[in-house]
Amino acid sequence: MAELPYRRNVGAALFNHAGQVLIARRADVAQDAWQLPQGGLDEGEEPRDAVLRELAEEIGTARAEIIGEVPEWLRYDLPAELVGKALGGRYRGQMQKWFALRFLGRDEEIRLDLDPHPEFNAWRWEALAALPALVVPFRRPVYERLVREFSHLAGL
Prior knowledge:
Blueprint: E1 6-15, E2 21-26, E3 34-35, E4 38-40, H1 47-59, E5 64-69, E6 74-77, E7 93-103, E8 120-126, H2 131-134, H3 140-150
Parallel strand pairs: 1-7
Antiparallel strand pairs: 1-4, 2-3, 2-8, 5-7, 6-7
């Protein structure tokens, strides 16, 4: 596993006007797996541009403005049983640049059905502090860090 690289990725904590964040349920796994929108960086792409592109691709809208970011890249390792299977089998985990964004649109603009192969099949607004308990265990330390970094934004 140590010989595999980390996949470079961006993540979005998208806050609504009430200070809740958008969390979405993955469509590609059998379990009830929830997460924040995130996705890979294209070659030469700036993370700030990538996070808005990923929002548009995954939730159908990029009507948001960046209001914060975690200063360093955060990492997680896949559990041993997923190495060689998840993330195309090419990565040991992900190295992520996380951003907080304020949603500038309306809930009706959030569309998971625009992609012919959607990553998510449901979404909802959730309290930031509740996120670590909702995600798969191997992502939990990253989400705990996001709660610490972005909790001051939950009161918007």
